[in-house]
Write a structure and sequence with these properties.
CATH topology: Substrate Binding Domain Of DNAk, Chain A, domain 1
Strand content: 35-45%
Structural class: alpha+beta
Number of helices: 2
CATH class: Mainly Beta
CATH architecture: Sandwich
Largest sheet: 4 strands, mixed
Number of domains: 1
Distance between the termini: 23 Å
């Protein structure tokens, strides 16, 4: 009985911990191939991700990130730098995606950033 109460409290806390939209940024995978990636990125690269005016977060093979409390009714600007130089930028909205939780990850094969709905490969540390 006590174990069920603790789990319930943990779930309730997790739901209160963030209001609004959530974007988890996966760490850079080292398991996939980099064959078609002609960007110059390597497993040693440090990517810096920022969304709107939120503090930038360094993303590496050992570090992931999370952006919380994003307005679900607005469009957001994502800016990404690789090793201190601008690499990519794009806009998104939670309304267009139809969810309030998204996964941003680096596709090492093509050297592109992708924003998806969370799925089986999702490794958001925030939700663990």
């Amino acid at each position: 009985m006590m174990r069920k109460i603790i789990v319930f409290i943990g779930v309730a806390f997790c739901n209160i911990a963030h209001a609004g939209g959530l974007v988890c940024v996966d760490s850079i995978t080292t398991n996939d191939t980099w064959r078609a990636n002609t960007t110059g990125a390597t497993t040693a690269s440090i990517f810096t991700v920022s969304i709107d005016g939120h503090s930038p977060q360094a993303i590496t093979t050992t570090r992931c990130g999370v952006f919380t409390n994003l307005d679900v009714s607005s469009e957001h600007l994502v800016r990404i730098a690789r090793d201190g130089k601008p690499d990519a930028s794009f806009k998104f909205s939670f309304q267009k995606e139809g969810v309030e939780h998204l996964r941003l990850w680096y596709n090492t094969f093509y050297g592109t950033w992708q924003l998806w709905k969370p799925g089986r490969k999702h490794q958001c540390e925030y939700l663990k």
